[in-house]
Amino acid sequence: MRIGADLERCVGAGQCVLADPSLFDQNDEDGTVVLLSDEVADDHVEAAREAVRVCPSGALSLVDDE
User: Fold this and answer.
1) What pLDDT score was predicted for residue 20?
2) What Gene Ontology molecular function terms does this protein carry (predicted)?
3) Residue 38: its pLDDT value, please?
4) Domain range for 20
5) Consecutive H or E run containing 62
6) Quick one: three-class SS letters along 22-45?
7) pTM here?
């Protein structure tokens, strides 16, 4: 599973970082999402799904590689 981020839509709320700080960070300049990895390990799938659900701008998406 891969995660995608649309930086044009991101409002820098940081909910993704709260959901899984091992997958997400925030840009120091504008607060937008920084993907620490676009590949989601099996043990982080639920946290990634939660990040997509709670993103207020809908900037995150998950793509199943299968």
Assistant:
1) 96
2) 3 iron, 4 sulfur cluster binding; electron transfer activity; iron ion binding
3) 85
4) 2-63
5) strand 60-63
6) CCEEECCCCCCEEECCCECCHHHH
7) 0.90
3-state secondary structure of 57: coil
List the structure tokens of 61: 């998406």
Query: What CATH number is attached to the domain comprising 31?
Result: 3.30.70.20
Assess contact for 38 and 2: CB atoms under 8 A.
Answer: yes
Look at the block and give the residue holding tokens 């390990």.
41
Half-sphere exposure of 31 (CA within 13 A, CB side): 7
Task: Note whether 65 and 40 are within 8 A (CB).
Answer: no
The tally of domains found in the chain comes to 1
**Tens place of pLDDT for every residue, the chain, 66 residues?**
999 999 999 999 999 999 999 999 999 999 999 999 989 999 999 999 999 999 999 999 999 876
Share of the chain residues as helix, strand and coil, in percent rounded to the nearest 5: 25, 25, 50
